[in-house]
Amino acid sequence: MSLFKFLFGSKVENTPEAKKASDEKSFDVLKYDGVRALNMGQADYAVKCLNAALAIEDDLECHDYLSQALMRAGDLPGAIEQVNILSEAQPENVDIYLRKADIAYMMEDYKMVGDACEKALLYDSDNALALYMYGRACMSMGDDANAVAMLTKSLNAADSFGDAMLLRGRAYLRMGDIDAADADASHLLRLNPDNEDVLMLSAAIARQRGNDDEALNIYNKVIDLNPFSAAAFEQRAALRRQMGDDAGADADINALKEINPESDDEDIARRVDESRRAIDPFGIG
Q1: For residue range 95-151, what is the model confidence (pLDDT) as tens digits?
Q2: C-alpha span between 134 and 131 (Å, rounded)
Q3: DSSP-based helix, strand, coil % in the chain, nearest 5
Q4: Which of 33, 138, 243, 251 would staple 143 via disulfide (CB 3.0–4.6 Å)?
């Protein structure tokens, strides 16, 4: 190459072959930068790069990465659009339907969750995660009976799926089947006696049985394990108030103010009162 060409560049070729090579190079660079940005937590930049790459070439892997980037950027409807493109191209890919169910759950579109799970189960009837997601959506819609059915199937497909048993225990409790809820909670406590979520379920069961002292001891244990557990302080404050320990309840309410300084007194009082009256203190559904 001459010095002149080295300094000022050669004439750009306008042949179809040259344009194709240039587009391929641009696509590779944009896709690589998009994936790198996604892995570094730079979701907005990843979205820009991947959209630019897709403007050059329609690529399923790019659509996949873009759906993840849009999720992290908070554009959930946009992420659903990308997942729909993937499902049209690969209708038997169960993972795509699971991704859609996950996004739809974040959107609180529980019907879409159920539809996506049904599609996944059409191709893999024993998929424990799909069954769990379906059960979780049923609970969110207040359909506890179907939630129990789906979660039981999930447990049959994957016996060690503790999340499904925890959620089933909560569903049983809401249905008033305290013995079944207690069986699930007891089993989980044997596996992990210090799990905060399981302890909270056990405390709720104790309260339903009228064992206030046992429930109080459980809340004490949760707070010892996690001094920032707002749910435990709310529940303990409500229980203490019910037991006539106003000083203890007030102390818990003050602790809640320290944990959530943005909450006002009225909001905290409302939550504690709801906790006192609620059968399900977890807000599922």
Answers
A1: 999 999 999 999 999 999 999 999 999 999 999 999 999 999 999 999 999 999 999
A2: 5
A3: 80, 0, 20
A4: 138
